[in-house]
Write a sequence for this structure.
DNA sequence: TCTCATTGATTACATATGTAGTCGTTAAGA
DNA sequence: TCTTAACGACTACATATGTAATCAATGAGA
């Protein structure tokens, strides 16, 4: 109902599924090589995501194929708005300012932002 | 050095202290009226923040006066970069796009962003 | 057909977090 | 001086999260 909360570890699993699905648990674990988690851990995260309604399953033989049940944009949008509200009263500028300061935005980033602003003004 | 992690509830306490300090626990609780927490809860949060090194104390009589030990910008900057990295590979534009879509940015917000972009370009 | 590796289900356990309660001490008022 | 209210310290307990291990069933290979 209320968009499920997806933890940081769980988000890595979602990222795999958003890129490619449906996938079996083993395939997901394999694609999460960088995380250096055991298969067990990945399965636990998958179970929790299914429980939360963020991931759906289809039986295939004796195992499941997993797919996202929520869209990436929905999740990232909510997280972004939540952070902006919590830290800056919903204002975007200070948020961007932090990004700019920390590691510097690339020229591409700036150009993209500019285009976005132009669009917002119309 | 390891910037302490500050939870959402703790952040409300920090916000009070960033606005005004030093303050005694009772004053902080009073200023957190909106949260509808018991004094106990506020004290627990304060203890945890002191433990984490995010808040400092000065004894005053038999009680403490609390003050922030980390700057707001440091904390918000870290949280912002963390979110941007986690969700968008550090890119600012999709983040702003979400804010724009969700509730619409005010004209002021947009103007502010524009000014910021102009500055970044120079 | 028999064995075993793999799968989902269940259980485990430490730390973080939200939200308090209890206790011993002490300053301040009666 | 005696009492009490308030303070910090310590304790409590449920849920979320990170990170697995165990268990029972079963399909695939010997």
């Amino acid at each position: 109902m209320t968009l499920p909360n997806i933890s940081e570890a769980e988000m890595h699993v979602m990222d795999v599924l958003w890129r490619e699905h449906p996938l079996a648990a083993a395939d997901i674990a394999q694609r999460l090589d960088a995380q250096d988690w055991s298969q067990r851990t990945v399965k636990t995260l998958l179970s929790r995501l299914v429980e939360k309604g963020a991931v759906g399953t289809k039986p295939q033989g004796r195992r499941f194929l997993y797919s996202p049940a929520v869209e990436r944009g929905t999740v990232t949008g909510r997280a972004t708005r939540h952070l902006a509200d919590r830290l800056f009263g919903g204002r975007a500028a200070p948020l961007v300012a932090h990004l700019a300061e920390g590691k510097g935005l690339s020229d591409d980033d700036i150009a993209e932002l500019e285009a976005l602003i132009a669009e917002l003004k119309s």
Q: What stands out?
A: The first strand of chain B starts at residue 55 and ends at 60. Residues 24-26, 39, 43, 47, 61-64 of chain B lie near DNA strand D (CB under 10 Å from a C1'). Chain B touches chain A at residues 8, 11, 73, 76-77, 79-81, 83-84, 86-88, 90-103, 105, 109-110, 112-114, 116-117, 120-121 (CB under 8 Å).
